[in-house]
Write a structure and sequence with these properties.
With about 325 residues, the protein is an alpha+beta fold. It has one domain (about 5-320): putative xylanase like domain (putative xylanase like fold, Roll), CATH 2.30.260.10. It has eleven helices and ten strands. A hairpin with a 5-residue loop joins β7 (about 250-260) and β8. The longest helix is centred in the first third of the chain and has 18 residues, at about 10-25.
Length: about 325
């Protein structure tokens, strides 16, 4: 397959037009899972079309390798790389529960360990983070699994199934909680019992872990508009949902993007595609829908949590995994 440097002017224009059409299609949707607009005027040609002019989800593995190598050389700052990689995912098809452990473990779902053509909200976040830290295809693929599995041990049981108790705990080397900075004076707490017994039983497995309850902070729905000026480019967001029993949990993930004019956007994978829309738009839609969902006893929007990507993430990981970090473990047991 020809690389981006070999593309003729006509092929470059073809990809440019195709990508623009995808962006326009994405601009028909807002919210998750509601459909609506839009994409920022603060996105430049340089952001959207650096060399190897394709969206990520149209690239082969070899092309992704070239793109990662190019970007890691050009952009030394992790958040700057993350920002460009986010834009290259816009238009990627969304499909829920698309990633599993195959071929290293069958698991109850028999799903593949890798899929760049589609994403759900979690696999989108994992892929963007891994790509932002990587300097090659190999390091991207290993980082992707290191983020997804406890201690990098690949098996269904060791996958970070629970965002609050598994994913965030396993990835403290990568992210840090910034709730107390973003929402100072506004925070509320909630306790969440991790229902591992039920989850493992549903999947025909025995739970090997002890009972666990986690206590977390969040910025409540009615106060979220106050913290928009505090949001920074590259923040990871958790959307908190509540049901009629009062149980709260992380119901959605994505990234914050702040453009050159200071407008705050969110980029996330939701029906039908990965898209970018203003944070204010999304918040307004969630608040508007909240009362209706409460009356219908359906899960509703409760608030947000925020995390920053650590600038020294790889140094921290080397202290855990050793000189050859990132490291994953595949055993026959």
């Amino acid at each position: 397959m020809r690389n981006g440097g070999d593309l003729t002017g006509k092929m470059i224009e073809k990809y440019r037009i195709l990508f623009c059409l995808l962006i326009l299609a994405a601009a028909a949707c807002t919210g998750c899972p509601n459909k609506t607009p839009e994409l920022s005027g603060g996105v430049s040609d340089e952001d959207m079309f650096p060399p190897y002019q394709k969206p990520i989800y149209f690239m082969s593995a070899a092309e992704i390798d070239r793109y990662i190598r190019f970007l890691s050389t050009r952009e030394k700052d992790t958040v700057a790389r993350l920002d460009k990689i986010l834009l290259r995912h816009v238009g990627q098809d969304h499909r829920q529960n698309i990633i599993g452990d195959f071929p290293f473990d069958l698991g109850p779902d028999n799903l593949p360990i890798y899929n760049i053509k589609e994403s759900d909200c979690v696999s989108f976040v994992e892929s963007v983070l891994a790509m932002s830290l990587a300097d090659s295809w190999r390091s991207y693929m290993v980082l992707l699994q290191r983020i997804r599995y406890r201690h990098g041990l690949i098996s269904w049981e060791n996958r970070n199934h629970f965002i609050e108790a598994d994913w965030q705990e396993s990835n403290r080397w990568l992210i840090r909680d910034v709730n107390s900075v973003v929402g100072a004076g506004l925070l509320k707490t909630y306790d969440l019992e991790i229902e591992r017994d039920r989850f493992y039983a549903m999947n025909g497995r025995k739970n090997p872990f002890p009972p666990q309850t986690v206590r977390l902070t969040y910025i409540p729905a009615d106060d979220v508009h106050k913290i928009i000026p505090n949001l920074k480019n590259g923040y990871l967001f958790n959307l908190i949902r509540t049901n009629h029993t009062g149980k709260k949990w992380v119901g959605h993930l994505g990234f914050i993007r702040v453009d050159r004019e200071g407008i705050v956007y969110m980029v996330h994978s939701g029906i039908p595609t990965v898209r970018m829309l203003t944070f204010s738009q999304y918040l307004e839609a969630q608040i508007k829908d909240r009362e209706k969902r409460i009356l219908e006893q359906k899960p509703y929007f409760e608030g947000f949590r925020f995390f920053a990507v650590r600038g020294d993430a790889m140094a921290r990981l080397r202290r855990i995994d050793g000189r050859l970090a990132p490291r994953i473990i595949i055993t026959g047991k």
